[in-house]
Amino acid sequence: MGRFVRYFLVTWFSALPIIYIVFVYHTILTIPHVTVNHWTTGWEELGRVATREATTFESEGGKKVFLLGMDTHYVAAAVSFYTDDTRKVFARNLVGRSSLAFDYWVPEIDLVGLNALTVNVNPPNLESLRKYIARVDDDVRRIPVMKGGRVLHYFYVVKCFDYLGAPPAV
């Protein structure tokens, strides 16, 4: 019995560093043909694509655009970290939904009248946006997040024209 326990422990502790290396490698660089969890990788690529989409939207509309992360806080935090700082990033608290710590950060600039590009990993609810936005584009774009020629996952963007701010209290 002691020999079995010793063999098991030696094998386990020898394999443990290999398991850790594979796990860290996968979360950073991804292993081919292994499913990727979108919470662990692809954020930098998402930031680049969101920047590109916002720049295109800005040039087409001729108006300043801010980015709006539409999940609880992950997307807004990642996009604010991985974008090029040429535009402000906010969270869904601007459209009446809780966004954890973002609920306590007030925008430094007046956003009323600016265009917004919403970014989310889930399909958006356009009706909930229409209370806060003058015109919400019905064209919801599903965009792949690519790394090394591989699709990691997808995210959704919606063009929103003329942010109205919070609706008046009734």
Task: Give a nutshell description of this structure.
With 170 residues, the chain is an alpha/beta fold. The protein contains four helices and six strands; from the N terminus they run ααβαββαβββ. The chain folds into two domains: 34 residues; 121 residues.
Average pLDDT taken over every residue:
81
Instruction: Indicate the radius of gyration in whole angstroms.
Output: 21 Å
Low-confidence stretches: none
Estimate the global geometry from the Cα principal axes. Answer: elongated
Largest sheet: 6 strands, mixed
- The arrangement of helices and strands along the chain is HHEHEEHEEE
Secondary-structure class: alpha/beta
Helix fraction? Answer: 25-40%
Task: Tell me the number of structural domains.
Answer: 2
Give the termini separation: 75 Å
Total beta-strand segments = 6
Percent strand equals 15-25%
Give the number of helices.
Answer: 4
Structural notes for this entry:
This protein is α/β, with parallel strands linked by helices and 170 residues long. It folds into two domains: 1-34; 43-163. The chain is built from four helices and six strands; from the N terminus they run H-H-E-H-E-E-H-E-E-E. Strands 1, 2, 3, 4, 5 and 6 form a six-stranded mixed β-sheet that branches. The radius of gyration is 21 Å and the shape is elongated. It starts with a helix and ends in a 7-residue tail after the last strand. The mean pLDDT is 81.
